[in-house]
Amino acid sequence: MTKALSDEDAAADLADKVRLDATSMRRVADSLRVTATALYKHVANREELIGGMLDRRVARIDVPAGRVPWQNALRARIRSRRATRMQSRVCAGSPHRPIRENA
Predict the structure, then answer these.
(1) 39, 56 Cβ separation under 8 angstroms
(2) pLDDT band per the 50, 70, 90 thresholds, residue 2
(3) What digits encode the pLDDT tens for the residues 26-81?
């Protein structure tokens, strides 16, 4: 796991405890026991950090295995997405965003 990914996980965990709009670079840094400046070595800005947080949470959505009818696969993805959104404040208020290839 790269440092940026662990930063994104820590930020997402923090956002789940507080609101997403209350998740600042400084708060994330404090939760990691580093300076806010140290975070900028791993992410360009808060927007990139939030994008990574969302990507990590969206990656939890299960993809149905095997060959199943498309209707069943779609239902399973919707249920999994809903469960992910219910578990995370990061996803609850976020618009849909494509997952980055390296997530």
Answers:
(1) no
(2) low
(3) 999 998 899 999 989 988 998 898 888 888 877 877 777 788 888 888 888 888 87
Per the CB < 8 A criterion, the answer to whether 94 and 19 are in contact is no
Is residue 23 within 8 A of residue 14, CB to CB? The reply is yes
DSSP H helices in the chain = 3-17, 25-32, 36-39, 46-58, 70-87, 89-92
Give the 3-state secondary structure of residue 55: helix
Cα separations in angstroms, 59 against 22, 38, 41, 85, 86: 23, 26, 24, 12, 15
Pull the structure tokens for residue 77.
């993805």
DSSP H stretches of helix in 18-69: 25-32, 36-39, 46-58
| Gap between the Cα atoms of 61 and 34, Å rounded | 31
**What confidence score (pLDDT) does residue 26 get?**
92
Does the predicted model carry a pTM greater than 0.70? Answer: no
Q: What is the pLDDT, as a whole number, of residue 1?
A: 45
